[in-house]
Every structure is written in structure tokens, then in C-alpha cells.
Amino acid sequence: MTVLELVERYLAIKDLSVKKTTKAGHQTVLNVLKKENFAQMEISKVKVSDAKLFLIKLQQEDGKSYGKFCILCTEMTDT
Length: 79
Hints:
Elements: H1 3-14, H2 20-34, H3 48-60, H4 67-78
Helix pairs in contact: 1-2
């Protein structure tokens, strides 16, 4: 299972019980994630450093805020 597949699976369940604006935010995260090599990595091979480097790239190279990604990651690890 890849990072993208895991996020899509998680959101398929989570988005059933969230507000429309939250769902739109999740879709934005998915759209950004789909364009990244990180999304195609196998979950079993992802290291914390891989995730940190991905978030740094988003901020420094792509000019994206990674707040939504951090919130999503926190939600996924809490379940």
C-alpha cells in the first residue's frame, strides 16, 4: 500500500462525518499529494525523515503551507 492509497482510504471513511469545508481541504491535500513522488512510496518503507523532507519541500520549494498535511497526519496516527 502506498502513502496515497492509505490517505485515500482514510479520507473515504473520515469524509463521511466532516463539514463540507473540511472535505474541500482534504481534497486539496489529495490533489497536492498526487503530484508528489512521496505519495507513491510504500508505507512499509517510509521513514520519519522521508515525511519530514516531503513537508520541507512543500514549504521551501513549492511555497505550500503544510498545516493541513500535519493535521491529517496527526488524525491518521491517532486512529
